[in-house]
Amino acid sequence: MEEEIERLSPLELKTELFAFLNLEKGIPLAYISIFKKPYKTVQTYLTKDRKHIVNPLKYLLFSVAVYTLVINYHQGFQNFLEETNKKNADSFNSIKNLVSENLFEKYLLAQEFYLSSMNLVYLFAVPIVALITYWFFRRKYNYTENLAIHCYLYGTANWTSFLILLLTLPFNFSGGLMLSLVIFTYLIISYLIKQIYQLKWLTAFAIQLLLLILFMIVGQLCMIGIFIYFIFFT
User: Fold this and answer.
1) DSSP per residue over 151-207, as a string?
2) Could you say which of 53, 104, 116, 124 is the most buried, measured as most Cβ atoms within 10 Å of its Cβ?
3) Do residues 39 and 196 lie in contact, with contact meaning Cβ atoms separated by under 8 Å?
4) First-last CA distance in the chain
5) What predicted TM-score, i.e. pTM, was given to this entire model?
6) How far apart are CA 149 and CA 43, in angstroms?
7) Which tens digit of pLDDT belongs to each residue from 97-110?
8) Which long-range contacts (CB under 8 A, 24 or more apart) does 132-137 make?
9) From the CB of residue 186, how many other CB atoms can be counted at a distance below 10 Å?
């Protein structure tokens, strides 16, 4: 006779949910540890113990998912889209003799999709960025280690932006909030790069600027791809 298990309870359901989301000791612990001791945390994962620190890819993917979900409901982001569309409309008025209105509408749809899922698109840039830092620091970390480091870097930046968005969700901020998040993200990643790669501040800022340019290039290539998709398939 099969042994019966205990009936499902709210406490057990909570435990299962927290275990799935790594909310008991995974993601929150990793987030706090990376901020407090970035170099030590990364070294622990890479060389000593991978059981008690959340997997870097899971850390990044979860951050992208929750950030993308929240930002699309944030009034500041909606204001940003409205301001962007207004500027695009003004630009269209000056070139409407060269571009059809239908083509311009598809561009607006592609841009809105790109902006609302930008962090998801930027996932494609992470392997490229990791390759750049591998070239600079190949004596310290191999390519796979650089990939893990950048998952932690951009995951931490995403989680921080997510917390800011969550705290400001009830308020009607202007689209300038998005620019503030970009600058804040740049500073966070620069700080983490300085600590993890043991660099001077100026070097860390310069490397992060280079990586930011690479992210922008990849982002624009994705934007072009999305635009082409909307032209031919919508």
Assistant:
1) HHHHHHHHHHHHHHHHHHTTS---THHHHHHHHHHHHHHHHHHHHHTT--HHHHHHH
2) 53
3) yes
4) 59
5) 0.80
6) 10
7) 666 778 878 888 88
8) 132/210, 132/211, 132/214, 133/197, 133/207, 133/211, 136/207, 137/197
9) 16
